[in-house]
Write a structure and sequence with these properties.
Layout lengths: L1 H7 L6 H50 L16 H5 L2 E2 L2 E2 L23 E12 L10 E3 L1 E2 L18 E2 L10 E11 L4 E11 L7
Antiparallel strand pairs: 1-2, 3-4, 3-7, 5-6, 7-8
Length: 207
């Protein structure tokens, strides 16, 4: 008798209340899980972007460490910047203006130690426009002299980069832009990180 009266005095949850409680719990945990997944994706994406930036910066420094100009010879092979990174069309050097738009022969299908990453490197000679800023004193892609060849062991004088606005053989070029693109695989596809740096002939005062 005592047990029956005790049970009658207790109130329980109805089925509707239980269903609502479960629904609220599932909704709250789903939102938290989505936030955690999104946060993890952002961290991964940020790490890949940082890695791409570092790989691009490393290549810029590698190129800048090369001699700006050294006469080419067949015994020693590639020696200066354009020997390594100038883009050819078959055996013919491509125009300076096309260097950033065409496929680079030094493209790396993979980077040792970095799975899913690859990069390309290209260079483009620049000259400084006449006058003072803002209309003058600007860097512009040079028109290379028609006799110039990046690798010319027969006529070393044509190996030295010359050109400018009028492709003159008398205007020795003192600077170039290095462009590095780093590609990395992501779920939607492939992303590209581009960085540019300037290299100059440091043998020249103010170069």
């Amino acid at each position: 008798m005592f047990l029956g009266s005790k049970l009658k005095g207790q109130l329980g949850f109805s089925m509707a209340e239980v269903v609502i409680a479960i629904a609220l719990f599932v909704a709250s945990t789903t939102g938290i899980a989505a936030m955690l997944i999104s946060g993890g994706s952002n961290v991964t994406r940020g790490a890949k972007e940082s890695r791409a930036a570092n790989l691009a910066a490393d290549r810029i420094e590698e190129v800048k460490a090369l001699p700006f100009y050294v006469p080419y010879n067949t015994l020693q092979g590639n020696r200066d910047i354009d020997d390594y990174y100038w883009v050819y069309n078959g055996a013919t050097p491509r125009p300076n203006s096309e260097q950033f738009q065409v496929q680079n022969p030094n493209e790396e299908t993979s980077i040792p130690g970095y799975v899913g990453f690859r990069r390309t490197t290209a260079v483009q000679y620049q000259y400084v426009t006449a006058g003072v800023p803002p209309s003058g004193g600007q860097l512009e892609p040079a028109v290379m002299n028609t006799n110039w060849r990046p690798k010319n062991a027969v006529s070393p004088q044509f190996d030295r980069p010359t050109g400018g606005p009028l492709a003159s053989s008398m205007d020795v070029l003192r600077g170039l832009i290095i462009q590095v693109k780093v590609y990395n695989q992501t779920d939607p596809g492939e992303k590209c990180y581009t960085v540019q740096g300037l290299a100059g002939d440091l043998m020249i005062t103010g170069g």
